[in-house]
Design goal:
By secondary structure, this protein is of the alpha+beta class. The chain has one domain. Helix content is 26%, strand content 43%. The protein has a 3-stranded mixed beta sheet. Strand 2 and strand 3 form a beta hairpin.
């Protein structure tokens, strides 16, 4: 799935394995064939998988937020 990021990401390079934290957005476009759509991830964070401690922290925060939202 394509990832959209506002600005530049200096910590990763093309081909790197990454952890992306964000939300899914579906965009609609008018084209010659009618209306088409694209789904992408709007990234709040893009973390190289080589930075395992940072990935663990981010995933833990996401789990905490989801647990609070779901009242688990």
């Amino acid at each position: 799935m394509p990832v959209a990021l506002a600005g530049e990401c200096d910590t990763t390079h093309v081909g790197d394995n990454v952890c992306v934290v964000g939300y899914v957005r579906r965009r609609f476009f008018r084209s010659g064939a009618g209306v088409t759509s694209r789904t992408e991830v709007m990234a709040d964070q893009v973390i190289s998988m080589r930075r395992r401690a940072n990935v663990r922290k981010s995933v833990s925060r996401v789990i905490e937020h989801l647990s609070a939202d779901l009242e688990i």
